[in-house]
Design the sequence.
């Protein structure tokens, strides 16, 4: 399901999903996809791919924040000067463009 993929990406890049929003999404997914989806959500939560964010503060945990992921996966090339007019954006964003 594309919805679960997007939910996993949001959880991993934002340090989790706010608890209230997580409960709401769980309820909506149960109503839309049935109880089988709850089993998948529980398994993803046990693996740590989807997790609740209890606090409102931003986490500095490099394994869950986008900054840490960006650096460890080398998603953006920081050595390119973006102020230069004739910048080849493929060099900045690699093959993700």
Sequence:
């Amino acid at each position: 399901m594309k919805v679960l993929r997007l939910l996993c990406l949001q959880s991993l890049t934002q340090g989790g999903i706010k608890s209230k929003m997580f409960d709401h999404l769980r309820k909506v997914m149960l109503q839309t996809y049935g109880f089988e989806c709850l089993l998948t959500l529980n398994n993803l939560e046990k693996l740590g791919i989807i997790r609740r964010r209890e606090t409102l503060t931003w986490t500095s945990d490099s394994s869950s924040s986008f900054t840490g992921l960006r650096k460890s996966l080398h998603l953006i090339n920081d050595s390119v000067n973006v102020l230069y007019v004739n910048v080849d954006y493929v060099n900045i964003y690699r093959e993700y463009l």
